[in-house]
Amino acid sequence: MDSFRQLHIIWLALTGGLAAWTVVAFGLLTLGTIGLGAFPAGVMPYVAAGVLAFMAAGLVVRRRGIASIPRDASEGKRFERYLVATILGLAMVEGGALVLITVSIVADTPGWALAGGAAGVWMLLMARPRREDMGSRPPRP
After folding, report:
1. Rounded to a whole number, what is the distance in angstroms from the first to the last CA of the chain?
2. Euclidean distance between CA atoms 62 and 85, whole angstroms
3. Is residue 82 within 8 Å of 69, Cβ to Cβ?
4. Distance, CA of 35 to CA of 104 (rounded, Å)
């Protein structure tokens, strides 16, 4: 199997898993079957701001990692550096979204679970791996 195809599978697994967990967490919170309420809901905007900044930093890390790939490097080295930058950036986005969903469960705030998951899925969709990002054109987020 092509290595780039394997990277697409990793990206799809991260995106699909996050989307599924968002739907499950939101549904369970909305139905009232989970939700601890042990965390004050009023701090959620501050938690969300910090987590969203971390998620955005993941896209920046990915973009800068891709931009730092030497244009004269071999295709294998270019892909290796692209792989590391992409997986690191995607993991930061997914991890941030999972933190926000988890904190929203503790605070019993279904809206924040949905918002965190949706933001994470949207960012992951923006950062879909593309072969042309390893070329001479500037990388996408």
Report:
1. 26
2. 5
3. yes
4. 8
From first to last of the 141 residues of the chain, give the pLDDT tens digit: 688 899 999 999 999 999 999 999 999 988 988 867 788 888 999 999 999 999 999 999 999 999 999 888 888 899 999 999 999 999 999 999 999 999 999 899 999 999 999 999 999 999 999 988 876 444 455
Contact criterion met (CB below 8 Å) for 104 and 119 = no
3-state secondary structure of 135: coil
In this structure, which amino acid lies at residue 53?
A
0.85 surpassed by pTM: yes
CA distance 72 to 78: 9
Q: Counting beta carbons within 10 angstroms of the beta carbon of residue 56, is it exposed (0 to 12), middle (13 to 18) or buried (19 or more)?
A: middle
Residue partners of 120: CB distance under 8 A and separation at least 6: 18, 22, 55, 93, 94, 96, 97, 98, 100
Cβ–Cβ under 8 Å, residues 113 and 101: yes
- How far apart (Å, rounded) are the C-alpha atoms in residues 18 and 95? 9
